[in-house]
Fold this sequence. Notes:
mainly alpha; about 75% helix
Amino acid sequence: ELQQKVEEIELLKVELQMLETERVRLSLLEEKLMDVLQLLQQLRDVNISKRALGKILLSTLESCHDPQPGKAHLFEVLDTLYHELTACELLQSQPLETAQSRQSLSNPLVISC
């Protein structure tokens, strides 16, 4: 019975480690998603055209064509989208004051449709 309890404890330790790894992965994914959403909001505020935004999205998807989408693939797509958005000329030409004032909003991720 004692041996069984030891084995159960070992299994629980392994499961806890897996959960912690998943928590960290999800946290990183959430951070990247928040960054992408903030950039999208900034682009909306400078009135980016739907066509230009569509081109950015298509460019992202084309550069991330992986036949086996998985957990790492999702992060790769978000990361690539983030870099595509930061390279957008509209954001680069935006005055620094405007960019800082948008970041100081109470909830900068609320995007009204």
